[in-house]
């Protein structure tokens, strides 16, 4: 789905001004097929164990996301799913790989702890030496790279003390941002990286101090409304031009189209039942 498919909605109100030209770059991702996906426990506000999950549809939707990346020319590597780890499909939480440094997740909940070993094994198989933090970090769920800076969330999952460990391991500056709304329990549910200098975010998800930092660092950031935030519309993956996002985040799609980005909507309604969407399913290997 592209911006043309949003016609008649908010996209119809896009300003006539010429948008800025955007240049995509080829990316490298890791993903895990949702073979064992289900909602058998609740560790975030989106999860409801009484809501049935269509496992076949979940795989089919995930395959559409995979196909979208490959159509755009990106490299996608597979991480083998493990029985008994239903959330492994949310590959972004598996760790952080940037400039050759690989940091394995240390999960807050025991239900997901086993995923760390699986992603560490994948890192090793690709020639990375997996590093571990002493404190909880949930990978790219809370550690988002913007240019040469890491934006790091805390408040619900990742321990703020892990931010210093990440800074030491990567050699990159880390900006700590406090999340205050449990619906936005990971940074990647409340903030989207669009390119090396452009972000979008949902202000109510952040503390006053975090909002002030974001306004200072990104004065031209896109502020997203509740309708899009509540469908995890900020849980996106961008190559600098093409922004793959939840199909029903139509208002956000219109906002970024006005800036010259090309939104590509993907329906991940089944995986949304576990509290994740596009970015959650995608671990980027930053070079």
Automatic annotation (TrEMBL):
GO terms for molecular function: amino acid binding; dimethylargininase activity. Signal peptide: none annotated. Keywords: Hydrolase. The active site is at residues 186, 280. GO terms for biological process: arginine metabolic process; citrulline metabolic process; positive regulation of nitric oxide biosynthetic process. The keyword Hydrolase applies. Belongs to the DDAH family. This is N-dimethylarginine dimethylaminohydrolase. The lineage of its organism: Bacteria, Bacillati, Actinomycetota, Actinomycetes, Mycobacteriales.
């Amino acid at each position: 789905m592209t911006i043309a498919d949003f016609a008649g909605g908010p996209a119809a109100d896009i300003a006539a001004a010429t948008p800025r030209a955007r240049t995509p770059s080829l990316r490298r991702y890791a993903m895990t097929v949702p073979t064992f996906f289900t909602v058998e426990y609740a560790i975030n506000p989106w999860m409801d164990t009484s809501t049935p999950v269509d496992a076949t549809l979940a795989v089919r939707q995930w395959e559409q996301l995979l196909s979208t990346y490959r159509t755009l020319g990106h490299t996608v590597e597979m991480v083998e799913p493990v029985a008994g780890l239903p959330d492994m499909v949310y590959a972004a939480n598996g760790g952080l790989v940037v400039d050759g440094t690989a940091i394995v997740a240390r999960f807050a909940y025991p239900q997901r702890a086993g995923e760390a070993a699986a992603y560490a094994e994948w890192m090793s198989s690709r020639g990375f030496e997996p590093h571990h933090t002493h404190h909880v970090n949930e990978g790219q769920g809370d550690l988002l790279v913007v240019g040469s800076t890491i934006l790091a969330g805390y408040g619900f999952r990742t321990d703020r003390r892990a931010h210093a460990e990440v800074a030491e391991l990567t050699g990159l500056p880390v900006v700590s941002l406090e999340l205050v709304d449990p619906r936005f329990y990971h940074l990647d549910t409340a903030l989207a990286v669009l390119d090396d200098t452009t972000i979008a975010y949902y202000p109510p998800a952040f503390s006053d101090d975090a909002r002030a930092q974001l306004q200072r660092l990104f004065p031209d950031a896109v502020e997203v409304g509740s309708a899009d935030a509540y469908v995890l519309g900020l849980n996106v993956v961008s190559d600098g031009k093409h922004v793959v996002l939840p199909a029903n985040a139509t208002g956000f799609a219109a906002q970024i189209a006005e800036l010259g980005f090309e939104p590509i909507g993907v329906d991940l309604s089944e995986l949304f039942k576990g509290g994740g969407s596009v970015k959650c399913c995608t671990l980027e290997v930053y070079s």
